[in-house]
Amino acid sequence: MIKKILVLSVLFIAASYCQKVEISEIKNRFETFDYKNVIQLSERAIIDQPLYNEDDFIEILTMKAIAHYSLAEEESSKRSFIDILKLKNDFRLDPVKTSPKVISFFQGIKSEFLKQKDKLNKNSFPFDNTVLLQIEKNIFVNSFARSVILPGWGHLYLEKNPKGWILSSLSAAAFGTMVYFIFDANSKEKKYLNETDQNLIKSKYDDYNSSFKIRNVLIAAFSALWIYSQVDLLFFSDDLFASKINAEIVTNSNKSEIELSVKFIF
Question: Cystine design at 204: which of 60, 69, 106, 192 (Cβ 3.0–4.6 Å)?
């Protein structure tokens, strides 16, 4: 019974994150000041970023940022506003719909963001194409190697965002449960094949068959997570790669030379 509950929980969580969150649902929560659910729904929407157009996605991030600010979670609010500026650096909040305090908070973040961007452009000028390509290669290899080992780990390497944590958590749970049922199915298969008592053969077979089916479902679930993670990392995470590359350039701009070898830091 406990095994079935564990499996169903993993599958239910995975299925819930596969459904697109409607922006109207987030708006309804936002307009009723249900900020915790605004954040929860927004984090689910972030995972499915490719399903939204840019304007809708920015609106989701805006509601998430304001919700965090309203709950006195300024660091989380700042991260959401920065994500918006990465998509649209001339973004402005609507003064009619937004509190002056939130606008002031955002303007401070925007000013710092643009200042850092300008500094980055100046610092990145001395780098030649060979060095830039090597930095990009190092980041790509490190992120992809992690993602192959555990879906979501590559996302966390680029930036510790909700998508990375969710994918990593689901993958770890699915993988752990899958491994358990692989051994469980093998064990029950041996017991079934070695059983000689006619009264127990059917019972042993039912146990084995049940474990075998659960194992197959979990293998399929983990495989789906693995494939989704690789596709998302390779084709829909340009902003994460750009942010990581920019951070590496800034870090290395003050050094006399840049290490060109690929480093795997686990």
Answer: 192
* 3, two tokens: 């095994």
Q: Which helix (H) or strand (E) holds 81?
A: helix 74-87
Q: Is residue 25 over pLDDT 50?
A: yes
Closest CA to 130 of 257, 264, 254, 241: 257
**pLDDT value at position 127?**
53
Q: What type of residue is 208?
A: Y
pLDDT at 256: 41
pLDDT of residue 102: 95
* pLDDT value for 38: 93
Q: Is this model's pTM higher than 0.70 or not?
A: no
| Residue owning tokens 């690789």 | 230
Query: Class of 19-123 per CATH?
Result: mainly alpha
How far apart CA 265 and CA 102 sit, in angstroms, is 39
Per-residue confidence at 17, pLDDT binned at 50, 70, 90? very low
Q: Which long-range contacts (CB under 8 A, 24 or more apart) does 255-262 make?
A: 258/131, 258/134, 258/135, 260/131, 260/134, 262/137, 262/138, 262/141, 262/142
Domain ranges of the chain: 19-123, 129-259
CA dihedral (9, 10, 11, 14) in degrees, to 10, reads 120
CA angle 72/70/111 to nearest 5° reads 80
Give the number of C-alpha atoms closer than 13 A to the C-alpha of residue 218, restricted to the C-beta side: 29
Q: What angle do CA 252, 256, 260 make, to 5 degrees?
A: 60
Is residue 161 within 8 Å of 42, Cβ to Cβ?
A: no
Q: Give the Å distances, CA to CA, from 70 to 38, 95, 99.
A: 11, 16, 10
